[in-house]
Amino acid sequence: MTELSTDIIIQGCQPISGTIQAGGAKNSVLKLMAAAILAAGQTHITNVPDISDVQTMAEVLRQLGVAVTLEQSALTIDTSTVTSYVAPPELVNQMRASIAVLGPLLGRFHQAQVAVPGGCKIGERQLDLHFSALEALGMQYHTDTVYIHASAPQGLKGAPVNLSFPSVGATENLMMAAVLAEGETVIDNAAREPEIVDLADYLVAMGAQIKGAGTPQIRIIGVRQLKPVAEYQTIGDRIVSGTFLVAGALLGGPLTVEGIKPAHLAAALDKLISMGVTVQAKENSITVFRERPLIPQNIQTLPFPGFPTDLQPQFMVLDCLAKGQALVAENIFENRFQHVRELQQMGAHIKTQGHFATVEGVEQLQGAIVQSSDLRGGAALVLAGLVAKGQTRVTNTEHIDRGYERLTEKLSALGATLTRAGWRTAG
Ligand code: UD1
Asked: Are residues 251 and 129 in the same domain?
């Protein structure tokens, strides 16, 4: 088969400034799409980015018999007919977030067959918390080499669930199952990410009874039936926003991101300020500019409200150019330093040991041919290319397209010099 692939080619050191829209949060909208399964009928979700992960989730829903269209940042989802409970391996392996259909399928139909997600580039990413949480509500399951076969022959019953780690995915699956379970579910040590609150708001708009989303304890009282939401607007993408803000911080700016709540990025904004970046936060926008040298800052990723793992690679680029040493601790995923080798190719001084990286700032990064091996790591390489001397070519950009809508066009509009070069591979 012949496949079209593209590289991103960047001429570094061009100043960038201007205003950009955050767009809708990938990590919210994928879960909202799954949650739509919980009610029969037509739903509209707005502020949806046209990225390949959204297309993959649309395909997962279509496999279930759901009609999905995406036009002008709005999704129309019609769940009137669901003809299958199967999420096949070719889609689940493409995107792990497909596992989010497990909870809603169990909630509404009491059965689901979801492929076991394959190995993931950034770590093992177990499902034990998803399983034990759903088992507490009455799910029975077994796995074979391909599928998780799940059912709730007696229906789902609310229960107390204490998560040993505030897993975002497990909290979401549990919420989506519990809204249609009989009685009360109390989730302790729940994830508190803004996307959890967005999902809860969406479920409440469907008629669910949920209290406490955004705190460590979420209480859900099951209802008999949910209704589709006429229109729901996805929150802004804090990770895309953070990525653009780092671009502004690297090159000086001023750069404004609109359509994002500063509270969703509080830990990252604090870090930028400590690094010597001026941050101006308004209700729904953030502006950054920098007139001083970068100050190195230690970074340790943690569940929200801690520093997000999805911004660790991008902030590492700032530390690469700061005057002095910084320690980066990746506490969420065990294999999230694949961008390090590529940054080293560009002249960065980084040493890794386990989940720690020691970064010694250098004066300048040099353009190079580098390979994107995951979504956020790939974005970090584009950022490094923007500030490096000479030309950088980032390959394997399909990872970046999973989560960034028209990244090259948006950066070009801000003044960066970058293009995409298509080439064909026989494979
Ligand atoms: C994670 C991030 C989320 C980010 C998303 C996409 C955290 C806490 N979660 O969510 O912010 O937007 O990736 O990159 O930062 N785990 C288990 N068993 C389980 C579930 C998870 O051991 O059943 C482990 C994972 O292997 C991982 C950690 O918990 O090491 C975080 O998992 P989780 O929050 O569930 O991951 P995502 O939902 O993918």
From this structure: no
Q: How far away, in angstroms, is 200 Cα from ligand 1 center?
A: 18
Q: Are residues 156 and 301 in the same domain?
A: no
pLDDT tens string 69-124: 999 999 999 999 999 999 999 999 999 999 999 999 999 999 999 999 875 566 66
Asked if 196 and 265 sit in the same domain, the reply is no
The answer to whether the CB of 311 falls within 8 A of the CB of 333 is no
Same domain as 414, residue 280:
yes
Are residues 68 and 96 part of one domain? yes
**Global pTM?**
0.96
Residue 163 is part of which domain span?
26-233
Which residues are within 8 A (CB) of 311 and not within 5 positions of it... i.e. 6 or more apart?
A: 239, 242, 243, 246, 268, 376
Instruction: Concatenate the DSSP letters of all residues of 318-350 into one string.
Output: HHHTSSSEEEEE--S-TT--HHHHHHHHTT-EE
Whether 27 lines ligand 1, by a CB cut-off of 6 Å, is: yes
423 CB under 6 A from ligand 1? no
CA-closest residue to ligand 1 atom 10: 168
333 lines ligand 1 (CB under 6 A): yes
Q: How far, in Å, is the centroid of ligand 1 from the Cα of 168?
A: 6
CA–centroid distance, 303 to ligand 1, in Å, is 9
